[in-house]
Amino acid sequence: ILLAIAAELYWFARSLPWGMAAWGSGIAMAVGGGVIMALSAAVRRRGWPFRVWPALYACLAAIPVVVALVVLLVVTNLQDGVVYQQTWLPLVNPLEEGAAFALLGLVVFYREVDRYYPASFAQSRPWPAVVLMALGFWWLNGALLRALAWYGEVAWNWESLWHSRLIQTTFALFWMLCALVVMIRATRHASRQQWLGGAALLGVVMLKLMLVDSAGG
């Protein structure tokens, strides 16, 4: 069934006309996230055959979908998200909506693995949570970049984006805010690892201000 769905999505994306790539990427991610959530819901309802092999359906069967979603979240975040002859809106567009479903599906998968394989999952901590947070942070950066490029009328190419003062300044402020939030949360929860992560991000911001923003004049 999963192979059939994947094949249909592939041919659907291939048949889309020029300027509709965001729809293909968004639908693929939304369907992938929806499949994981549907499997989880079916297992929790304990219908046949899901009640017989709950761990198989909720965790093992979803692994190919999870891998595909991770790849899609990394790769499609490089798209501008603009649909031909349609007004682009931040967060309310095919690419961002599809990514939201994909991230939600990954969170559901994370909880299901923790539920059915607690011993194995405990040995791999904290890396699954780190990967989830990294994917979320990666996509937030992409969403912010798309919004700035659209409303700032910056061409979607590496040189234009890199030399935009609006984009560089906004990203420095955004990263600094994220670092401060992480450090405050880490202080409240007495988590040294989280605090060091926030401090590292703050250090990256300082380096960026000195090497990139200051160099731009």
From TrEMBL:
Pfam family membership, one: DUF2339
Record InterPro entries: DUF2339_TM
What's in the keyword line of the UniProt record? Membrane, Transmembrane, Transmembrane helix
* TM region(s), chain numbering: 20-43, 55-76, 88-110, 130-151, 166-183, 195-212
Is Calcium among the key words of this record? no
Q: What's the domain of life for this entry?
A: Bacteria
Q: What is this protein called?
A: DUF2339 domain-containing protein
From which organism does this entry originate?
A: Enterobacter hormaechei
